[in-house]
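Lecture 7 notes: from sequence to structure.

We start with a single chain of 168 residues. Read the sequence below before looking at the structure.
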Amino acid sequence: MTLGELPLAPVTPLPEAGGDSGYVMTLDADGWPTALGRPGSADAGLPPAVLLPASMTMAALCTGGALDLLALNPYGALVHDGGRTLGVLEQDTVSAYLVTLSARGTLRGDTPAPLDAVLAGAYATPAARVVCRCGLLTTLTAYDAEFPPSCPGPGPDATPHPLAIRAE
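Now the structure, written as tokens:
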């Protein structure tokens, strides 16, 4: 089952959100999400947005590197299809699937098959949109909290520094 076929929680852009909105997201000037959270936590800052392609399967999410990106947002990830946000894949949904994979013994330990080298259909890479404390918006395709990536800095003369996530 692909992420686009799963039940997803609705999400609203922060400026359009009402008091009863479940999830809210902030958008950059191009309309791409930069943060995802709950309306009540918007004043304190929202965690970075993690973007997952609708064509990705739950098995691919839970047995691949995209799973590490989910550590950046405690609520879940935004599922996208052709630049359109479909909704929020909540952490609880992912956790429940991980339990079933673990029970079957297939969590990041599947035996390789010849078809693993072939990408079927359209392929999109999961990504997280992170704003550094220096203000630069960075797109990550992998994340390890123990070894944060470096940020090149906001300008041409800036000094690279460790990425420090700023709440949006």
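DSSP finds three helices and ten strands in the chain. Keep this in mind for problem set 3.
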